[in-house]
């Protein structure tokens, strides 16, 4: 195996190890809630001059929310400094450091014994996940030739989806059989191997960008055009990806299908599996035929499929599909259409994701700051990913479950239409086929 291929495989391994650790901990989150039994916390009063601070009560719900929000806030804060450090100094060094930090953090999780220590550990995990994700994608984009960039990014993402499938399916079984500690031993070993592979197979990064590349890239015309799509599409994906399993699993009284755990997992795995299979291929053809049209078609298809999800019961009944399945037992005729729609969502996103990532990589390579370009891409996603769960909760509780998917689908469609409009207005009628 030649040296270049080994470099890419080291980065694919890094994506796999990071994805496995992330999804495993997400899967185990309910177990931690049960184990730690979070309760309301009263902040101590602190005298500061003539003022008395503290004394506030943090509700149990707030404490549980911080189990996730601590991770997300740390990610948001870490994006800019980590991306800047990667462009200014050595992306390989930053990648090895954050993956090594991840190994250390996961090794500490079995020692967590309180809500505070869990939130702190989750924040450290957020920093490690952000650094590993940004730097691995930046190095893939930098090492790949322009005509193969989306293909290599698609392969890197496929490794992450494979880890998500394996982690989500195995975490519960391993916990029931062995408890927390052996799971984190596996994750720590994987990340340690990835750290060694990075150090052995990747050369020192000699591309140095002086100054603050975020400033120039924030005014880049192509990135600004992509922003019109990405900000809205973040709402769509966060709503749909979060609420497909919720729709499958919650009670009929709440607007769901009341399926059991295995059936719910099938909807999650279907989306990840088709995305994993398709991304290397869709990345390769977007290298050949242009990025923008794949963003447009993938985003539009995602929106149309999202709009169709609430019609799963009607489709199942119209087609007289089975309502009882081996192993799964009695479900409803909506099961097969819902799994099919989840698979189609994965295919749609596989059209969009490698092309979108390659566009940002294209703008960041050549001395502009590829890590910072991916950092901007990450920041554009944040507002929608924070607002969407709150919006989804309101729609589900006060309007109707189906409206989560209607709003999510509409957000994807308005995103691609805005993208097309700005693309034609700013870059001409041929830009959709030329980018």
Automatic annotation (TrEMBL):
Entries under Pfam families matching the protein: MFS_1
Domain Major facilitator superfamily (MFS) profile span(s) in chain numbering: 7-427
Transmembrane residue ranges: 6-29, 64-86, 93-112, 124-144, 156-175, 181-202, 291-311, 323-347, 403-425
Signal peptide: none
GO-annotated molecular function: transmembrane transporter activity
Cross-referenced InterPro entries: MFS, MFS_dom, MFS_trans_sf
Keyword Membrane listed: yes
Keyword list, A-Z: Membrane, Transmembrane, Transmembrane helix
Entry keyword annotation includes Membrane: yes
Protein name: MFS transporter
Organism of provenance: Haloferax litoreum
